[in-house]
Amino acid sequence: MAAGSSHRMGGTDKVWARLGDRPLLARVAGVFQECPAIGQIVIVLNKSNLKKGEQMVAKYGLSKVSDICPGGERRQDSVVNGLSRLSQCGWVVIHDGARPLVSRDLIEQGLSVAGATGAAVAAVPVSDTIKVAGEDRIVRETPPRQNLWAVQTPQVFRYDIIMQAYRQTEEDVTDDATLVEQIGYPVQLYMGSYDNIKVTTQEDLALARILVNKYAE
What we know:
Blueprint: E1 18-19, E2 22-23, H1 24-33, E3 41-45, H2 50-59, E4 65-70, H3 75-84, E5 91-94, H4 104-117, E6 119-125, E7 132-133, E8 139-141, E9 149-158, H5 159-167, H6 176-182, E10 188-191, H7 202-216
Parallel strand pairs: 3-4, 6-10
Antiparallel strand pairs: 1-2, 5-9, 6-9, 7-8
Helix pairs in contact: 5-6
């Protein structure tokens, strides 16, 4: 999923920002390319980036990329567009194109855990105390921190489950697992990585570059 507008990046399209020796998106796609558990890759891009995506696939030898398709108005529209391009697929791994520190291990763990429930999501325990507040910013609740997890991607689903979830909703969502929960399927969390950050701002990009260099050492 890489069809976002990058509006918080100050004019930089994050998926094409350099990260080590290649664009951020090429690094993400490369991890999936090298993972034996992955059979095909669909990249969902902003319409203006489709040609650039084709050039990236050719340049970096991403032979598992079976399709590059345009995103929709909302994130869920983009996800449905991507899902519709898959063929003979039993399992789906949905990943944010802006999370460049994904690893083969995170992908394979997700597939392993999802085998029991049909749905599994990478997540990490929150380290900060969380406050629930109203629109007036008055604190309403302080939930126990030990029960709170920050959700990431990859998110792994049985193909029929995630398709059913998207067929049965019209509401705006930012998380695929939320829809699966709403139709009654259990979603299993598995341990993600605190390094598996999402690049949203220039500060995030700077941190991602530091982490990439750390792994390269």
